[in-house]
Amino acid sequence: MALINLSFAQLTQKIDSIIQTGFKDPNAPGGAFLVSRKGNIIYEKAFGKANLELNVDMTTDNVFQIGSMTKQFTAVSILILEQQGKLKVNDPVSKYIPDYPSGNTITIHHLLTHTSGIKDFTKMKALSEIAQKEMSPKMMVDFFKNEPVDFQPGEKFDYNNSGYVLLGYLIELVSGEKYEDFVKKNIFEKAGMNHSFYASDRKIIKNRAYGYHEKSDGFVNKTVISFSVPFASGSLMSTVEDMLKWQKAINGNLILDAAHTRKVFTKYKLNSGEEFSYGYGWHLKDIKGVPDREHGGSVFGFKSMAVYIPEKDIYVVGFSNCDCHSPTQIIKDMAGLVVKNPQ
Q: Residue ranges of the Beta-lactamase-related domain (predicted)?
């Protein structure tokens, strides 16, 4: 990997130009982006509008729905419960939900690693019938649990939202608390994430960015979905600075001890012995040949992406308030640039 030696101003300019490949219109929905090295913010900027109707500019304080980046918080919540001695990741689902189909062969580990084989509810035709209903976690689990499995547990990796909804339900059963309250008390409050929430369309959330779709004739407000449907697979909200606090809390073993943190970031193996690139709630891949931890998110009106490079202690996160603008490649390109620049 060839290193480049850019000045701070040059690096900022290059990052600006990477972001503007997807976020160039100041009057369109936009995004917020942050880069940190060794825990210090070296880049933080917002682009576009947080609210088109009110003509409000985006700021780096805006609160976004983070979609599937929620899975990190769900996975860590499960390990908090393991750390407390309340469950084990190798427990079968049937230990907590006795009537769950094949629950004696599907383990919590299978759910965490997307290797359970259970049907992903986002691929079910009947989803449109419940998308705007208020669903309890049990109702959500009942919605998909009797669907035929796609494969036997541990046979393959296949990204799966149902598994994380089921994990959220297990968190509630085992802790005796609502998922929302458990995450707030055990993660948000401990990490000082004061601008992170379980999503709501009813609550007043200061600095909320509004979500948009793009149609052929322009932007429209996002389709409304009940947050009780994605639940523990995709219903949290946060800011770029709160996500940096989350990353620091993980690094500093503030939430989990070192042994449980290692479990999160281990590459696991299928029944065949083949290794796959997912731990518990994070993809474990690489940027420019350097190992990373990454995850994105997509939910009506929003897209999100973050990359962390342990070897260099570099964290790059970006949020978009239009599902027409994905920050995924932009974040990877930003991370690749910062990795190559040793400043």
A: 16-322
CB proximity list for 14: less than 8 A, separation 6 or greater: 6, 337
Domains and CATH numbers, the chain: 8-340 (3.40.710.10)
Q: Per DSSP, which regions of 72-158 are E strands?
A: none
Q: Is residue 2 predicted with pLDDT exceeding 80?
A: no
Degrees (nearest 5) of the Cα angle 306, 7, 36?
25
* pLDDT one-digit tens code per residue, 202-214: 999 999 999 999 9
Name every residue whose Cβ is closer than 8 Å to that of residue 61 and which is 6 or more positions away in sequence: 195, 207, 239, 241
**Rounded Cα gap, residues 90 and 79, in angstroms:** 11
The Cα-based distances of 191 to 68, 72, 83, 92, 264 in angstroms read 20, 14, 17, 31, 18
Please name which of 191, 184, 159 lies closest in space to residue 235, comparing C-alpha atoms. Answer: 184
User: Residue 233 class from Cβ within 10 Å (0-12 exposed, 13-18 middle, 19+ buried)?
Assistant: buried
Helix (H, G, I), strand (E, B) or coil at 210: coil
Per the listing, tokens 């979905």 go with: 225
What region does 174 belong to: left with phi over 0, alpha with psi -120 to 50, or beta? alpha
Distance of alpha carbon 249 from alpha carbon 254, whole angstroms: 5
Q: Which long-range contacts (CB under 8 A, 24 or more apart) does 86-92 make?
A: 86/174, 86/175, 87/170, 87/174, 89/263, 89/280
Provide the CA 56 distance to its chain's centre, in angstroms. 26
> What's the mean per-residue pLDDT of the chain?
96
Rounded CA separation 256/46 (Å): 32
Partners of residue 292 on adjacent β-strands: 285
Q: Find the mean pLDDT for residues 80-98.
A: 98
What does the alpha-carbon distance between residue 141 and residue 318 come to, in Å, rounded to a whole number? 31
